[in-house]
Amino acid sequence: MTTTDPDTEVGRDLLRFPPDFLWGAATASFQIEGATGVDGRGPSIWDTFAATPGAVHEGHTGDPACDHYHRYPADVELMAELGLGAYRFSLAWPRIQPVGAGRVEPRGLAFYDRLVDELLGRGIQPVVTLYHWDLPQALEDNGGWRNRDTAYRFAEYAALSHEHLGDRVRQWTTLNEPWCSAFLGYASGIHAPGVVDPKASLEAAHHLMLGHGLAVQLMRDQAPDDHELSIVLNFCALAVDDDSQLDAARKVDGLQNRLFLDPLGGRGYPRDVVEDTAWLGDWTAVVRDGDLDVIAAPIDWMGVNYYSPTRVAAAADPLAVSGGPFPGLRGVEFLPPRGEVTGFGWEVDARGLTDLLARLQRDVGLPLVITENGSAFPDVVRDGEVVDEDRTRYLVDHLRAVHEAIAAGVDVRGYFAWSLLDNFEWAAGYSQRFGIVHVDYDTQVRTVKRSGRTLAEVIGANAVPATGYDLP
Ligand code: IFM
């Protein structure tokens, strides 16, 4: 993403974005591709998890999802109609290396060749994520991210994918939301592989970050100068009302934000997080000499995923183990959302995005890209239309929040709506619709929602309305 002059004009009716601002939408392989058993693809941890009774809402699986594996030409045409400048998608590691190591499946690579060529043919820039949670099951059978070896396997897979597609793809992201992979996967167990072992989840977090750093090193060695390497984190935006909440907020900020930001920034793991989690056992024993230098390998931009703020308070018992996604944390009580919530029950707060971007500008010092932002609401198709006023309001309010951050000097280079298509929302199966395009899973008919049409208008104008939700 090229340098932008944050010369954001605030007009009477429109808030304009910088001229080369990148507009896109995002998806992930397991969530949309379907076709889990074709062309030599190996099983992933999500295939196994989805087949586990009770793990995923109503036993939903990765098939057929949006059948994007077969329908990608029409989906790319849709992207072109929406005017997207870029498309963020992930490669399915088990399509490319069915057992996560060694043999490469040419039919898997060929699918991504076709997709990338189709995108480029429509003038849409591919932004590739190497890992969006579909770990080859064979690696999990060997310990998954709890095993240091997985970091090396990931780096090899990253390098071979980059070698193959790097003549056409300039934008590469290593991991999507390693916090989720580590803590939802190995601590709370609500995501694949469904392990509940808080100490191991911290070891997994380290191995994920090591894999990121090793991959960056290998890709950097083989990358032409114009390639840009990045990582995508899901930050916790803490909404604090008074000082009594500060310590709880510090703990959550430590385990979700600083645990990743500090090593990436060359500062190692935060001392307070290591102390707060020491009661689980010494997970830092897995950190070997030189690992922290690897993790700090320079990247070109950071991806920011933002949906909702988090509210916490000090628990009455300082030693009480916090529930939810943080079983490794003590003394923190998670508070319910306030005010407007999405269909998923997530608090709507665009202000939290502006504040988060300002904080990251201070603490990260890298260009930022909003790699995911969106909302789930229960849509209905009526007379061939989906009038999703709630999602449209969410979208426009958050775009104003991004504009406000840019106008205040934050270096934000792009915005990707989550998601292009309704899709498999992990443990919630198909029950939550995040798409700006509706998918009828029975017929596979796509219907652009009002939010999708609004995003297309925003892209066309390179601006959001200053007030209201319609562009003049
Ligand atoms: O669908 C997910 C995505 O895979 C990762 N970020 C959050 C989204 C909504 O939950």
Explained architecture:
Residues 2-7 have low confidence and may be disordered. The strands form five sheets. This protein has an eight-stranded parallel β-barrel with strand order 2-3-4-5-6-8-12-13, surrounded by seven helices. It has a single domain (11-465), classed as TIM Barrel (Alpha-Beta Barrel). With 472 residues, the chain is an alpha/beta fold. The chain contains 15 helices and 16 strands. Helix 3 (68-82) runs parallel beside helix 5. Helix content is 37%, strand content 15%. Residues 28, 31, 177, 305, 372, 418, 425, 434 line the site of 5-hydroxymethyl-3,4-dihydroxypiperidine. 5-hydroxymethyl-3,4-dihydroxypiperidine is lined by residues 28, 31, 177, 305, 372, 418, 425, 434.
Overview features:
472 residues, alpha/beta, TIM Barrel, eight-stranded parallel β-barrel, two-stranded antiparallel ribbon, 15 helices, 16 strands, 15% strand, globular, disordered N terminus, binds 5-hydroxymethyl-3,4-dihydroxypiperidine
How is this structure best summarized?
The protein is α/β, with parallel strands linked by helices and 472 residues long.
The order of strands across the largest sheet is 2-3-4-5-6-8-12-13
The appropriate CATH architecture is Alpha-Beta Barrel
Taking all Cα atoms into account, the compactness measure Rg is 21 Å
CATH fold-level label: TIM Barrel
CATH homologous group name: Glycosidases
**Terminal CA distance:** 29 Å
Tell me the quaternary state: single chain
* Residue runs with pLDDT of under 50 for 5 or more positions: 2-7
The biggest sheet, with number of strands, parallel, antiparallel or mixed sense and barrel status, is:
8 strands, parallel, barrel
Strand-residue fraction? 5-15%
Mean pLDDT: 96
Task: Please give the number of β-strands.
Answer: 16
Please work out how many helical segments DSSP would assign. Answer: 15
How would the global form be characterised?
A: globular
Give the count of structural domains. Answer: 1
Q: What percent of the residues sit in helical stretches (DSSP H or I)?
A: 25-40%
Category from helices, strands and their pairing:
alpha/beta
**Compounds present?**
5-hydroxymethyl-3,4-dihydroxypiperidine
CATH classification class: Alpha Beta
